[in-house]
Inverse folding.
């Protein structure tokens, strides 16, 4: 009993330290963002940020670019991972190695490489967010690949493919109507992770001279203190909303997966 009490007290102590370590900076930032000189406290900084056209433009720019990154990444990786797992399992180590390369290559090196690679390309590509999209797809590769690969591993793609083909389904039908619906949780997980990563990416956007949300945060931080603190909390809330969405989807998917496994077991 004494050891159990000591263990519980230790857990409570460490949990309290973790909560304080997490909340104290947030509360300090909140207090600073609400300060309005000697007049006391108010929401002037938040009003300034939320009514600033650059805030809406940069957030919309990053959000649309994140959606495009998600779509392109899924179109590239879902068929690739599916085919490698189904027909060419020996290439999986190669995919694993390629997927971790963005962790090794710094974003600034990636930007220089992309600009050098596409030097002389048409202006509709180089002078538009399309070139930034290429960098973001590479930047999000490890997260999307791991999500898709984990989803593929959780389902029996060989059995599903053979069952669908025995009913006359072609490869496109198998992938779109059998495999992809079973990857819903994995695809949404990768999508939420990509969204949070792209919203906070600064290096590539700034070096390519695009006004993304992270660039706007840096600009406000260099010019105005109180609005910068307010913007920090707003961006933090956006990120946490995405992560809570990921948690909700994962829990719902795990319950759905358990029901599907039960139905399969009953059918057997």
């Amino acid at each position: 009993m004494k050891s159990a009490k000591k263990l519980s007290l230790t857990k409570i102590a460490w949990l309290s330290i973790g909560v304080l370590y997490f909340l104290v900076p947030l509360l300090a930032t909140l207090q600073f963002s609400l300060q309005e000189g000697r007049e006391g406290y108010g929401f002037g900084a938040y009003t300034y940020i939320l009514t600033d056209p650059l805030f809406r433009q940069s957030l919309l720019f990053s959000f649309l670019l994140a959606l495009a990154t998600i779509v392109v990444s899924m179109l590239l990786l879902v068929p690739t991972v599916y085919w490698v797992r189904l027909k060419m399992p020996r290439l999986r180590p190669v995919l694993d190695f390629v997927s971790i390369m963005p962790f090794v290559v710094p974003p600034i090196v990636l930007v220089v490489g992309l600009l050098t690679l596409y030097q002389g390309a048409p202006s509709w590509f180089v002078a538009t967010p399309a070139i930034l999209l290429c960098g973001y797809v590479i930047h999000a590769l490890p997260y999307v690949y791991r999500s898709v690969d984990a989803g593929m591993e959780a389902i029996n793609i060989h059995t599903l493919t053979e069952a669908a083909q025995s009913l006359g389904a072609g490869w496109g039908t198998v992938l779109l109507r059998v495999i992809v619906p079973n990857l819903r949780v994995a695809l949404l997980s990768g999508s939420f992770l990509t969204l949070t990563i792209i919203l906070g990416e600064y290096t590539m956007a700034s070096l390519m001279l695009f006004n993304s949300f992270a660039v706007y945060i840096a600009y406000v931080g260099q010019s105005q203190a109180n609005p910068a603190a307010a913007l920090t909390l707003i961006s933090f809330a956006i990120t946490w909303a995405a992560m809570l969405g990921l948690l909700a989807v994962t829990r719902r998917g795990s319950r759905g997966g358990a029901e599907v496994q039960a139905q399969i077991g009953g059918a057997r």
Observations:
- The two ends are 47 Å apart (CA to CA).
- The chain is about 85% helix and 0% strand.
